[in-house]
Amino acid sequence: MTRAIQICQHGGPEELQLVDMPVGAPGPGEVRIRHHAIGLNFIDVYHRTGLYPLKMPAGIGMEAAGVIEAVGEGVTHLRPGDRAAYASNPPGSYCEARVMPAMNVCRLPDAIDFETGAAMMLKGLTAQYLLLKTRPVEGLQPGDHVLFHAAAGGVGLIACQWARALGLQLIATAGSAEKCQLALDNGAAHAINYRSEDFAARVKEITEGRGVKVVYDSVGKDTWDKSLDCLRPLGLMASFGNASGPVPPFAPGILGAKGSLYVTRQTLFSHITSRASTQAMADALFDVVASGQVKIHIAQRYPLEQVQQAHRDLEARKTTGSTILTLA
Ligand code: NDP
After folding, report:
1. What is the third-level CATH fold of 135-265?
2. Is any ligand 1 atom within 6 A of the Cβ of residue 264?
3. Whether the CB of 267 sits within 6 Å of ligand 1
4. So where are the chain's domains?
5. Any bridge partners for residue 18, and if so which?
6. What architecture does CATH give domain 2-122+269-326?
7. Is the pLDDT of residue 328 over 90?
8. For tag attachment on the chain, is the N or C end more exposed, with fewer CB atoms within 10 Å?
9. What is the number of the ligand 1 atom nearest to the C-alpha of 122?
10. Is the ipTM of this structure higher than 0.95?
11. 93: helix, coil or strand?
12. pTM for the full predicted model
């Protein structure tokens, strides 16, 4: 048996209920993992509210780290006793133990502890594919400006540090002076409080009128229009989230009018579609974390039983960096 968080219908944090459920043996291509720590992500909110609908009853959570207890037929990259971490579908990581597909589960290097592993897989792989694989048509060179919204959050603080390591001039936005300072402390070249300043005007000032080559936008509805104004001609709008709500439909003509812009809507799970692609990306992430180029800031910890409060705080913009759910 395992304690797990389940929802029986979409709704508010009160729908997150602690239940006991059996954990079986892994089938072909699956592993059973016992978690030591669980990562909290904003996508868990979308799953809970139904913005990304789930079949009920549903587990929640896509990130965790722990120890492999058993492997199913055909799983060759993991053995019982291995330390492991993952960002994976289907949702269901808010639990002590689970059976799940092995494809996205990776061995965790000894240099990385369980909490760090749980706090960095979904967020770190996302920062990685955004900065390294989601590139404008004219390429990105050291010294280029990019704009990264919600830069003091989980994905954001990793992106600030990774961008610095790549030599990019990352312009951060965040929702308070403290959050802006945090982004600067973690490698952002500039920071804008987008709740009190016109971020498009400030980006134009910082870039001396030129604009940035890429906007990485996970805020969605509230930042979309002005983000397009921050781009230079042929720039790339990389949308990857909807913390403020989904981006409304728009007419493509606007992209021509604003400088032949490119738009993409990215999701991590298009980048980790095989064991090989997952491992290659995980190895690159493990390298930057183990070498200290990217530090994972775990700024909040909640026991699994307090997951409702964790969701409330995340949605109320009270968190910074990564948040983990702990297990007794
Ligand atoms: P964060 O820790 O970044 O939390 C979300 C942040 O968004 C808040 O802290 C807040 O920062 C900002 N925000 C702006 N407007 C709102 C609003 N109306 N309500 C709530 N928050 C708001 O979360 P994560 O690191 O888990 O994820 C960051 C984003 O990246 C999310 O949108 C997530 O869905 C997306 N994502 C997308 C992936 C993909 O592959 N497509 C994969 C992983 C994450 P502030 O106060 O500074 O504005």
Report:
1. Rossmann fold (3.40.50)
2. no
3. yes
4. 2-122+269-326, 135-265
5. 5
6. Alpha-Beta Complex (3.90)
7. no
8. C
9. 43
10. yes
11. coil
12. 0.98
